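TICKET: design request
STATUS: open
ATTACHED STRUCTURE:
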């Protein structure tokens, strides 16, 4: 969703944060979709990071912050995963 906004538009109608077992992924999906709902566009990665920084500054969110930062760092450095199309196809089937 972060890298393919056209696909994100397709899946956003059915995507829910509670589909994710990992708390950091649920958090990111929730924030991503909330941004889209409010502004009617999907945020670029840099904007998403800016929009969630304040919430992750709370000391009680330290574990979540670490997981989110690690994940976003991997996304930023790796770009499109080699199996990206497969994941998009299977997510729509789900």
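STATUS: resolved
RESOLUTION: sequence designed for all positions
ATTACHED SEQUENCE:
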């Amino acid at each position: 969703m972060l890298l393919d906004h056209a696909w994100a538009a397709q899946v956003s109608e059915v995507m829910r944060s509670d589909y994710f077992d990992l708390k950091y992924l649920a958090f990111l999906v929730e924030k991503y979709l909330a941004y889209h709902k409010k502004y009617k566009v999907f945020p670029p990665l840099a904007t998403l990071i800016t929009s969630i920084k304040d919430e992750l500054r709370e000391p009680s969110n330290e574990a979540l912050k670490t997981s989110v930062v690690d994940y976003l760092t991997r996304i930023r450095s790796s770009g499109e995963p080699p199996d990206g199309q497969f994941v998009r196809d299977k997510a729509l089937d789900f």
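CLOSING REMARK: Residues 5-93 form one domain. Helices lie at 5-11, 23-39, 45-56, 62-78, 84-93.
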